[in-house]
Design goal:
Elements lengths: L14 E3 L5 E3 L27 H12 L17 E6 L4 E6 L12 H10 L6 E6 L12 H6 L4
Parallel strand pairs: 4-5
Antiparallel strand pairs: 1-2, 3-4
């Protein structure tokens, strides 16, 4: 008989591996289980929704309506400064606009504000603003709301 104390060997818990190959305890939620042990789930794959050109144009109009002429308390859309919005198949947008006068003091920043607001819409890839003075701006181009706000009605 040996006087040496008996060594108790503890049973090592089962180990498992994560899908990436790291060793973890077998009862860990990270351990790779056999596919038969996993509940069956149905995965439904959906494609991201596409916006129609009309929906994009509506969003562009709403974005443009947040740009105001600094001298007139009316947004540039209702003021009648936006002549056209063209949504291209590649989701780029071209906005054609005018200014109240060719030497308008806001000419240096209003077109840039319109372009930036449109460009930042999530469904728009890029935007560009073209300035035209044909036809020249006149108060008749304003919306009824703008005319009312400015006392033209």
């Amino acid at each position: 008989m040996s006087d040496a104390p008996e060594k108790k060997t503890e049973a090592k818990p089962e180990t498992g591996k994560t899908p990436s190959g790291h060793l973890v305890p077998g009862d860990s939620a990270l351990a790779d289980k056999k596919s038969a042990d996993l509940p069956k789930t149905e995965v439904k794959v959906t494609q991201p929704s596409e916006f129609t050109d009309e929906q994009i144009e509506e969003q562009v109009v709403e974005a443009i309506k947040t740009v105001y002429d600094p001298e007139i308390p009316v947004n540039v859309y209702d003021l009648g400064l936006i002549y056209g919005i063209q949504v291209n198949p590649d989701k780029t947008v071209l906005v054609t606009m005018t200014l109240t006068t060719p030497n308008c003091p806001a000419a240096g920043f209003l077109p840039g504000q319109v372009e930036a607001r449109v460009r930042h819409l999530p469904m728009v890839e890029d935007a560009r603003v073209e300035i035209t003075f044909d036809p020249p701006f006149s108060p008749e181009m304003m919306s009824e709301e703008a005319k009312l706000e400015l006392g033209f009605l």
